[in-house]
Amino acid sequence: MIEDVQELYRRGIRLTPEAYELLLKGKVAQALIERIITSGETVIGKELLDGFSAENEKIPDQPTVNRSPTFKPVAKEYAPDFKVINRSDVSGKSDCTGKLDDFVAHFRNRFERISALLRTRVTPNAIVKSAKLKETQGSKVRLIAMVTQKKVTKKGNLFLDVEDEEGAAKVVIPKDAPAFKDAKRLLNDDIIALDGRNADELFICENIEWPDVRVAREQKKSENDVAIAYISDLHFGSKKFLENEFSQFISWLNGTEGREELAGKVKYLMIAGDAVDGIGVYPSQEKELAVKDIYKQYEMLAEALEKVPDYITVIICPGNHDAVRKAEPQPIIPYDMFRTEVTRVGNPSKLEIEGLKHLMYHGTSLDSIISGISGLSYDRPEEAMLELVKRRHLSPIYGDNLIVPESRDYLVVDDEPDIVHMGHVHKNGYMLYRGVRLINSGTFQDRTEFQVRMGHVPTPGVVPVLETKSGKMTNLGFKQA
Q: Does 353 fall in a domain?
């Protein structure tokens, strides 16, 4: 039936979303398709389909989600309590012109803000600039700098080239130094604090400190007993999209799939990008697409989200498959792509929901972090997320992930979040670190050929749900065996 719909579009015939779903899911006779083609009509709705039915039978209505008569959601009793932190969102604020000055301003902004975080850390050592190191010969000091190059010497020591606003320095971390083990995790463009002594044009480092989050930080909870469901990577339009499983999830939100008490608490639905599969995202993608019209993919998404109970606030950011620029930070998904009333935010974005500070980021840079740090893997995405949190930057390696050099670096994590929500790697993961919840929400797309070749094993159909008052996290599985 998909081929028949594509034929209609090639002939300039457009379908309303309702008619599209009926054709896609209904058992429609070929004679009806021919009748549509010969009708001369350019826009086909359900009424015309009913009238054209070659067998004088109505096409069955699209299944609707019916709420259980015993379902009494407590979330409906609460007004939404959330706000978007506008300064964190690039939408409508992009000022990059592609000139050299943009790159200089971007890196200066990143360095100033992350070094400011490091300056708040308690240290017995005086903080000095690279240009003043010679004046501190023999004294233990702290240097805050960005790593520009890293290599291991013949003797097994670690050698770094670093820079700050006033100059550069050469740093040696001896293999027997306490800092050596941590230094193995260093990446180019990391901004760190180095404690040590200057000697003969070299800074001998004994200790390294990342910006990180505070150690003595309690897990935050809310007053209202509501819940937040986290999803991402739906990939509407893909042949691998798990339509039945996603429909089951929507039915659960409506109280018809068991666990009604938890479903009734859900007040917010967070979607961390890749809501649709997109067009031309990677070579030969068209072979894996069930729907090759990007507008139609978003229509399918809109129709699905309209079945979410109206008291649930839906918040969505784009990912690398969505219809926005590929380079980060990404602005909101355009309103002309789909018209459902949802809260649209950029990627990344920061929000306060029920008093909890959320950082939502699709997670494209997880690829470069996993490949750049030994011991990380796609099986445990929360560990890669942790490395980003420790660096207080969502894409620390410039160049591995497409970045627009805006004058403000929107990927810096200034404020300590309570919850970090990512997707991208199609693997469910969770960690609690110093009071910060790290959540990777997995996917509603089955395993792709690319993932088979790469050895990635996704966890589709798993939805993390956080009860904000108790702090309890539940992973619900909707994948059918």
A: yes
Residue 460 tokens read as: 């589709």
Given a contact cutoff of 8 angstroms between Cβ atoms, the answer to whether 62 and 243 are in contact is: no
Structure tokens of 14? 């457009």
CA distance 389 to 115: 15
Residue 166: burial class (beta carbons within 10 Å; 0-12, 13-18, 19+)? exposed
As a whole number of angstroms, the distance between CA 458 and CA 462 comes to 10
Q: Give me the phi and psi of 250, to 5 degrees please.
A: -60, -40
Same domain, 181 and 265: no
3-class secondary-structure state, position 346: coil
Question: Where among 159, 174, 209 does a domain terminate?
Answer: 209
Q: Are 200 and 177 in contact (CB under 8 A)?
A: no
Q: Quick one: how many helices (H) and strands (E) in the chain?
A: 12, 20
Does 62 map to a domain? no
- Per the structure, the complete domain to which residue 375 belongs is given by 74-93+224-477
Pairing type for strands 419-422 and 356-360 reads parallel
Within 8 A by CB and 6+ apart from 35, the residues are 52, 54
Cα gap 396→361, rounded to integer Å: 14
Domain count, the chain: 3
Strand 428-433 and strand 356-360: the pairing is unpaired
* Stretches in the chain below the pLDDT threshold 70: 1-12, 14, 17, 21, 23-32, 34-35, 38-40, 42, 49, 51-68, 480-481
Give a yes or no: residue 410 inside a domain.
yes
Question: Domain boundary residue among 153, 174, 209?
Answer: 209
pLDDT digits (tens, 9 = 90+) for 306-362: 999 999 999 999 999 999 999 999 999 998 888 888 999 999 999 999 999 999 999
Name the residue among 313, 342, 299, 315 with its Cα closest to residue 253. 313
Q: In this structure, are 43 and 162 located in the same domain?
A: no
The two structure tokens encoding residue 394: 């969502």
